[in-house]
Specification:
binds flavin mononucleotide, Rossmann fold, about 180 residues, two-stranded antiparallel sheet, alpha/beta
């Protein structure tokens, strides 16, 4: 089975997640191809793929505008294939924020017309070393305001790799 993994990333966690999916699917015998949609030089083609896994992070309540634009422009190509949408956020890591995380995805689907066959909310990471003052303030005073983690100092990865592996293999129809 030929699977296209099309992703966008800002600080790198979604790229790490996409590479992990590629490794897992290849290990299970799939022909998986990784394309970074955040790379302006990347050539995106859906030809030859019957299955597409999309992955993008949430920043300030939405997925990257360029990724949404790509989904909108590729609506017909995506509708003709089996698709899974993976939304990466910190909201997905906390019970109290999970509903909010779900809303980011609902809003993205409304804006782009994407109707995925499967969707998954995946918890991202806190990476103080890649934040400037502005990013730290947003995380501290908005997203993580009720959490004990301090985005100025605490590096933390919330992604559940086992759950992710099982979900993508289940979607691709290969052994978990
Ligand atoms: C400036 C900034 C804004 C963010 N906004 C949100 C948000 O609105 N909701 C949320 O759940 N997570 C938010 N996050 C957390 C990211 O979704 C999380 O860190 C994710 O791992 C980033 O993925 P990436 O490394 O692929 O860009 C934000 C992170 C940063 C740095």
């Amino acid at each position: 089975m030929a699977v296209l993994i099309l992703f966008a990333t800002i600080e790198g966690q979604t790229a790490k997640i996409a590479r992990f999916i590629e490794t897992e699917l290849q290990g299970a015998g799939c022909d998986a191809t990784l394309v970074d949609a955040s790379d302006k030089m990347a050539k995106v083609t859906f030809d030859g793929f019957d299955t597409v896994i999309l992955a993008a992070p949430v920043h300030e309540r939405r997925h990257p505008a360029s990724f949404e634009l790509l989904l909108t422009a590729s609506r017909a190509d995506l509708a003709a294939r089996r698709t899974m949408m993976i939304s990466v956020s910190l909201g997905a890591a906390f019970t109290t924020l999970k509903e909010e995380a779900r809303e980011y995805l609902v809003e993205m689907k409304l804006r782009t017309g994407l109707e995925p066959d499967a969707e998954l909310l995946v918890a991202g990471a806190v990476r103080p070393s890649s934040y400037g003052y502005y990013e730290t303030q947003i995380l501290r005073h908005a997203i993580l305001r009720d959490q004990t983690i301090d985005p100025r100092t605490q590096e933390r990865e919330f992604t559940d790799w086992d759950e992710l592996a099982a979900a993508v293999k289940g979607f691709a129809g290969v052994d978990a």
